[in-house]
Amino acid sequence: MPLLVAGSATALPGLGDHSAQAAAQKVTTQTDKYSTPTSQPGFKKLAKKYKTAIPIQVLGINDLHGGLETTGTVKIGDATYSDVGTVARLGGSLDQAQNQFKKTQHAKAANTFRVEAGDMVGASPANSTLLAHESTMHTLRAMKFQIGTLGNHEFDHGLGEYNRILKGNKPAANADSLVKAYPHQASNINLVVANVVKKSNNKIPYGYKPYTIKTVKAHGKTAKVGFIGIETTDLPHLTLLKNYQDYKILDEAKTIAKYDKILNKKGVKAVVVMAHTGISSQDGKTAGSAVDILNKVNQLDKKNNVGLYVAGHSHQYANATVGKTHVVQAVYTGKAYNDTQGYINAKTGKFMHLESHVYPVLPAKANPKAKTNAKVAAIVKDADKRVAPKVNAVIGKAATNEPITGRNNNSKTMENAAGELVVDAQRYEAQKNGTNPDFAMTNNGGVRSDLAVTKNGDITWGAAVAVQPFGNILQVVEMTGQQIKDALNQQYDENQAFYLQISGLTYTYTDNNDAKQPYKVVDIKKDDGTPVSMTATYRVVINDFLHGAGDNFYAFKDTPIKASIGSDTDVFVQYFKDMAAANTPVKAPTLDRKVYQPAGSVVATSTQPVNQVQVALG
């Protein structure tokens, strides 16, 4: 399930809380200043002292989320780049980076490895979702990704379904006709995951291996490189119970240390980890669970050989060293990639030098020497053509032709128009179905994008599904006023890492003299101004992800279910159809449902500052 995080990077879920277990290594944050590897000073020539060493390159991505044509801005280091992204440009950028490496290093051997750190699919646009993400897997194959691991979104429809599209097997007999008609082919990605095991037998599922070993060559010499895959232990908070209940997710650091030692015994002294664990480099500082995990790895084994850690999950830019290990993360949705180049000592088999950088996926105009990958572009074009009739179907009308913006345009009270439109729609449809809801709430990460509106003010099926792509089941549950207050307070116990969009109620919150929960809710009212009683019971529309305490909202867990009203995707689409039938153009809600009142103040105001360092996780 997707997440959006706001707050200090040192305490972000997905950015981790492993620090109490491990002594800190020195963390040195790098600041990327160049937009292409061909302009990177350290990559322009072969240093004399490494002429007899074995060169190696690792090109990595994370959190693609089926973003076949996703574009936007991205901040890398101190620079912000516009119009970046798309898998066709990503493919061309990776080709440019690999060609630069070969030319500079005179590397005739296949010493470049393309790797991914999870969440390649899920929470995706329609040209991936409607084709069961097989179009995304086709592009990864065309871009020649060799090694990958699991993120939380690979579990969205059950790990068995992800394994199907990974291997290119046929879909189930009841699959949608679009999926059945789409070509099925293996991705050619060697999936490695070391810390996911079945509860029934403690074995890694589907025949996946914990690591893979590759050989690099140069100057008539060879060396071995090990690649370990790691899933986040936060998985139970990030997907539905049915998707993870058969598995145990083992401690990341202990697992890395274990397999590093196994690789060492096999003669592998150069190790790369791909881990779906978050990290962020901001304002010259780097923090997150990847840092905490590496601290613990070094505590467990100071002589470990982990030289590179390709991170994911927190959707942030990161480039740093933690002790001797380089850590990188290339934002998300194909807007950037990381390029690590270095050398292995042929005698010891160890990394003797590594240099890591993160680069934007620039448009052709900004980087014409990176040729758009024509094969990847053709896959995307074909996917668009297949889904176009459904995606472009008009289902509603907006009051203006402006997009209704989502979580990238939060108010200071962490409200956004698309999010509040989602919960308004859920409450409306639940009322229409006779389930008598009082309120509706959804997690911030469940609202995936802005709601796009055409120049004519039309709202299409594809635009609606981009906002609500998951198909989670909406349930009407019964909660006491106290449980509702508890849920609202749980927004503030992790630096607003996870927050709610709300409908049918307003509330006031204020400062709280507690570092672990800096704000607290002081009163809650219905829309009509009636106070919410702590002892009374109310009906609340939530998705089944929240009902399982997703995003750490434990106040929702196991509350009595009174009704179900269908999937969030279908309900959102139906809402626009209903508004169109009623000749009611859809408007962006006013962001005034959460009111911040400073401690000691009598007059409530929603304009006071609230911690808002936003980090998207997924």
UniProtKB/TrEMBL annotation:
5'-Nucleotidase C-terminal domain location: 394-557
Gene3D superfamilies the UniProt entry points to: 3.60.21.10, 5'-Nucleotidase, C-terminal domain
GO molecular function, one term: nucleotide binding
Calcineurin-like phosphoesterase domain location: 58-317
Domain of life: Bacteria
Keywords: Hydrolase, Nucleotide-binding, Signal
Gene Ontology cellular-component annotations: outer membrane-bounded periplasmic space
Swiss-Prot/TrEMBL GO biological process terms: nucleotide catabolic process
Any Pfam family matching the protein: Metallophos
InterPro entries: 5'-Nucleotdase_C, 5'-Nucleotdase_C_sf, 5'-Nucleotdase_CS, 5_nucleotidase/apyrase, Calcineurin-like_PHP, Metallo-depent_PP-like
UniProt family annotation: Belongs to the 5'-nucleotidase family.
Protein name in UniProt: 5-nucleotidase
Originating organism: Levilactobacillus acidifarinae DSM 19394 = JCM 15949
